[in-house]
Amino acid sequence: MDLIKLFLLGAMGYLLAGFFDFAQIRKSRVLSYLFSVGFALAALPYPILISRFPSPHPSPLSRLLLALVIISAVATIYVATVEIPLRHKTPGTVYNRGTYKRIRHPGFLAHLVFNLFFSLYCYTAAITLLCIFFVLCNLVLVAIEDVFLFPQLFPDYPTYKQTTGFILPKIRGHR
To answer: Of all helices (H) and strands (E), which one includes residue 107?
Structure first.
């Protein structure tokens, strides 16, 4: 499977993840279940790439980078799929605690760090470019969520947007 096909596979995952959010707005359990496959599709290129492109680095550096890839992957999975269902107790409202207290899309930052470590681990220009494209796909998804989808899904989202940064914390002045 060449890199273009892997990009299309991952990009399709991000598109389906957006449809998943839309299905949540429509309160369609069937469509939500169907479109949830997008999260797996967005992640699938990475194990394929690791299996086909071993790290060119010396063994100690390779192990360190692989550990950082795994840690950042676990952090991304936790923030994007585990934290809210595990800790949020009020359905239909914005979760504004934990990693979501200071920024609205901490999963994007975790995904960015993961892709940085992943591209350093594989250390090829083509994979680095692929990682950049995946980060851009994720940025488009979170921007669409932020502007169009989440305000429909959560009535208190506009207030949350005023007090919480998009992907970087808002600077709070002294009062």
So the answer is: helix 106-122
Q: Give the integer Cα–Cα distance in Å for 109 and 71.
A: 14
State how far the Cα of 57 lies from the Cα of 120, in Å rounded to an integer: 9
Task: Choose among 55, 40, 51: nearest CA to 123.
Answer: 55
- Collapsing DSSP states into helix, strand and coil, what is residue 46? helix
Rounded alpha-carbon distances, angstroms, from residue 15 to 7, 40, 75, 134 = 12, 12, 22, 12
Q: What is the DSSP letter of 88?
A: -
φ/ψ of residue 140, rounded to 5:
-60, -45
87-140 residue pLDDT tens: 999 989 999 999 999 999 999 999 999 999 999 999 999 999 999 999 999 999
Orientation of helix 125-144 relative to helix 3-25, angle to 10°: 10
